[in-house]
Design brief:
Radius of gyration: 30 Å
Strand order of the largest sheet: 7-4-6-5-9-8
Low-confidence stretches: none
Shape: elongated
Largest sheet: 6 strands, mixed
Number of strands: 26
Structural class: alpha/beta
Strand content: 25-35%
Mean pLDDT: 91
Number of helices: 6
Length: 408
């Protein structure tokens, strides 16, 4: 997409999503500890270094006996605890007490569960014996060399536990992007302050911080008044302090009012403006700009518009930065209530609550008045895509939507 002037046609959502993937190259990989890897994207496949499990293990507390020894009375000759290795060829009539996870002393054995025997001193009486071996056999989970975690996987708790079990203590993952967020406007004050008449509490900084928290990213943040020089200074200071930014978000000032400085500031700072507005709502006055390896987004100040832009465009940028395959795709669900679309001339992204019901994704549209309306965000976990011109949609209608939580 070429450099955009203020009078250029509004970009479609699909075009902006494609642009994000085009201008956001994958960041370089780095090795980190398992403690720092949660939420990161794995950059290389991880294989089983040895058979999983590495040895035959008891799956229960019980007694190991020969598989071909069908006697009911045995002599207990030893005990094996988890972590011990006591190889031994059991003779007919011999049994070894073994704990769950304990290494079997030899081959062709069976473990009789503790609940199915009576032990008196060294004498063991089998009360019931089924065909189940009660053994986790070597390699039954995976043989050595099999790929167990593919490159591109978002590492969450289960994947990290698997890496730990494989001895992969420092996985190769994508570096986290360096993100600077400037919340602009003379009217915004800290959430812990009582606003004077004409002022509002800053909700966008909290929204942005929480959104990035899903990726384990802590953005640098600052509040700046409606002053071009102050915004320029905050941008330069943040860039210097962070050693360069991969992504800059400027909240507010993205429209065309007399005090909307974002576009001019980025242009004068040698950013190439790719997008000046979109044909979507909320979030029409979106600016997308680039300078070298730094991507800048000017976001409309209204919080619901912020929510939409973060979950559409910023999410796409983060997926591209992380080398994660594109997941900012839309899936199909079914409306559980009426959606009063109203035939708007622009594509609309409607806040909703999605859940699974009888195997189908069902969506409850949430009431909202304007792009400044925060009230639906407490319940919203999805955005319904409503085509331009669509009229009132009835319950049972099939719709496209995206989830607004990060998915692996």
């Amino acid at each position: 997409m070429s450099t955009c002037c203020p009078k250029a046609p509004a970009a479609s959502v699909s075009d902006v999503l494609a642009l994000m993937r085009e201008v956001c190259p994958a960041l370089e990989p780095e090795q980190v500890s398992l403690a720092d890897a949660c939420g990161r994207v794995l950059r290389e496949p991880v294989c089983a270094p040895e058979d999983q499990p590495r040895f035959d293990r008891s799956s229960v507390d019980g007694y190991a006996v020969r598989l071909d020894d069908r006697a009911s009375r045995f002599r207990i000759v030893d005990e094996i605890r988890a972590g011990e290795w006591k190889p031994r060829a059991l003779q007919l009539g011999e049994a070894m007490r073994i704990a769950t996870g304990g290494a079997l002393p030899g081959d062709r054995l069976q473990v009789v569960m503790k609940e199915d025997v009576r032990a008196e001193g060294r004498q063991l009486t089998v009360l019931r014996r089924e065909d189940e071996h009660n053994i986790r056999f070597r390699g039954e989970d995976a043989p050595a060399g099999r790929v167990l975690i593919e490159a591109g996987t978002v590492l969450q708790a289960g994947g990290l536990a698997l890496l730990a079990s494989l001895g992969c203590a420092r996985p190769l993952v994508t570096r986290q992007p360096r993100v600077l967020h400037l919340a602009t406007g003379n009217e915004i004050v800290s959430p812990d302050r009582r606003p004077a008449r004409g002022q509002i509490r800053d909700s966008n900084s909290t929204l942005v911080r929480a959104f990035f928290g899903q990726w384990g990213i802590a953005p640098e943040q600052a509040r700046v008044g409606e002053d071009k020089a102050a915004i320029e200074a905050a941008l330069a200071e943040g860039h210097s302090r962070m050693g360069g930014c991969d992504l800059v978000l400027i909240s507010g000032g993205a429209s065309v009012g007399e005090h909307d400085f974002t576009r001019a500031l980025l242009h004068e700072s040698s950013f190439v403006i790719h997008v000046s507005k979109t044909n979507a709502r909320p979030g029409r006055p979106l600016i997308v700009a680039q300078r070298g390896d730094t991507l800048a987004l000017g976001l409309p100040g209204n919080p619901l518009a912020h929510f939409v832009c973060l979950n559409l465009y910023v999410r796409a940028a983060l997926e591209a930065f992380s080398a994660q395959s594109a997941r900012t795709g839309f899936v199909t669900g079914v409306l559980s209530a009426q959606l009063p679309a109203g035939g708007n001339t622009r594509e609309t992204f409607w806040p909703a609550r999605w859940s699974m019901h009888e195997g189908l994704a069902t969506l409850m549209p949430l009431r909202w008045i304007s792009s400044g309306d925060l009230t639906p965000l407490a319940a919203a976990n999805a955005l319904i895509r409503v085509a331009a011109g669509a009229e009132q949609l009835q319950p049972g209608s099939r719709v496209e939507f995206i989830r607004t939580e990060r998915t692996s």
